[in-house]
Design goal:
With about 350 residues, the chain is of the alpha/beta class. It folds into 2 domains: about 1-240, Aldolase class I (TIM Barrel), CATH 3.20.20.70; about 305-355, no CATH class. About 40% of the residues lie in helices and about 20% in strands. It contains 14 helices and 14 strands. It has helices at about 20-35, 60-75, 95-100, 115-120, 130-140, 160-170, 185-195, 200-220, 235-245, 270-275, 285-300, 305-310, 320-330, 350-355, and strands spanning about 1-5, 45-50, 75-85, 105-110, 145-150, 175-180, 220-225, 230, 255-260, 260-265, 280-285, 305, 330-335, 340. The chain has an 8-stranded mixed β-sheet. Helix 1 packs parallel to helix 2 and helix 6 (about 160-170) packs parallel to helix 8. The longest helix has 17 residues, at about 200-220.
Length: about 350
């Protein structure tokens, strides 16, 4: 579910999102529900993800309407994982309790940093105090599965060790850590060009990330994907489905779907979406494109890519010249079921993947 509403746009963000009136929000929810109702397939749904934007900017009653529409049109697994992305300043204890009653069982907080000067620099509308209180409230509301997004690569970001220890102490079970990518056209991109933002050099970024990995491991956060870490048993099932090239349906403006080997997407213009949600762009993937995605996504994970799935596309690593070379120098490994990149080589995953799909 793509909820494209935000209190204000972050300086590094190039997603389809923004500040819209309550009238537009209500029309959007109505259209979203109409789109959900237009699906008559009875696929079994194992995960639901409310992403944004800032889904928590909506009322709990808005979210309830959407969940009800999903339940009325799809078979929901008994152990369904339901995630909602939240900004720390847009959720109260009362709202979090309502989420819990609706069956939402995973909270993802866009914390990004526990440094107030960094938060101000990147245009976040919350502060450290609000972030910590939101996590405490989630625990009080009964949530055990709590993710925190963190942004790395800005020089002012310090105290990594203390931050990770504090987050674990508060009950965080999953951390998604991303290096800052400057997207062309964003305010932060323009500020960096004018040297108004102090970004880390490549060497500094590598050093920071290595320190970060060490601290996460010391605190029991296991790396199961290039940018994702969790305590035992708290992997994000929704994202695992993407990495394993599973099928998914996206609802809302700019949402993407993948069904029966076909990828399709909704318009990126919210007004066009409100006029006609049925206007979609379709892309049928070739066997080579499917293979490349299978390798690219699977090798992001610690488990790797399934040998059985590779065989479906007639890709045999032990008969592939580049794969054999990478195996010989220890950059990739093969076990009984999977081909995978060793954790110490995740830093050069892109180069390895490119070699494998040549």
């Amino acid at each position: 579910m793509h909820i494209p509403f935000c209190e204000s746009k972050c300086k590094y963000c190039n997603f389809v999102s923004g500040n819209f009136s309550r009238d537009i929000q209500e029309k959007y929810i109505d259209t979203l529900i109409k789109e959900i109702n237009s699906y008559k397939i009875q696929n079994n749904v194992s995960t639901i993800f409310f992403g944004g934007g800032t889904p928590s900017i909506l009322t709990a009653e808005d979210i309830e309407k959407i969940i009800l529409a999903i339940k009325n049109n799809f078979k929901i697994s008994k152990n369904v994982e339901i995630t909602i992305e939240c900004n720390p300043n847009s959720v109260s204890l009362e709202k979090l309790k309502k989420y819990k009653k609706l069956g939402i069982n995973r909270i993802s907080f866009g914390v990004q940093s526990l440094n107030d000067s960094v938060l101000k620099l990147i245009g976040r509308v919350h502060n450290k105090k609000q972030a910590l209180q939101a996590i405490k409230n989630a625990r009080l509301a009964g949530f055990k599965n709590i993710n925190v997004d963190l942004l790395l690569g800005i020089k002012e970001n310090k105290n990594i060790f203390q931050d990770i220890c504090l987050l674990k102490k508060l009950g965080v079970t999953h951390i998604s850590a991303y290096m800052l990518i400057l997207e062309k056209g964003t305010p932060l991109f323009n500020q960096a060009k004018q040297n108004k933002v102090k970004l880390m050099s490549d060497d500094e970024s590598v050093e920071e990330y290595e320190n970060y990995l060490k601290v996460l491991k010391q605190n029991g956060f296991n790396r199961y994907e290039i940018s994702n870490f969790c305590l035992k048993g708290y992997q994000c099932q929704h994202n695992i489905n993407y990495w394993e090239c599973g099928e998914y349906i996206g609802f809302g403006v700019s949402a993407h779907s993948y069904m029966n080997g076909v990828r399709y997407s909704n318009t990126e213009n919210i007004n066009d979406y409100l006029k006609d949600f049925n206007k979609k762009q379709f892309e049928k993937l070739s066997s080579q494109e499917k293979l490349e995605e299978l390798i690219m996504l699977g090798l992001r994970t610690k488990r790797g890519v399934s040998l059985k799935k590779l065989a479906e596309y007639k890709y045999e690593p032990l008969k592939n010249k580049n794969a054999l070379k990478l195996l010989s120098v220890g950059l990739i490994k093969i076990n009984k079921t999977h081909l995978y990149i060793t954790s110490k080589n995740f830093g050069i995953a892109n180069q390895i993947i490119l070699k494998l799909v040549e």
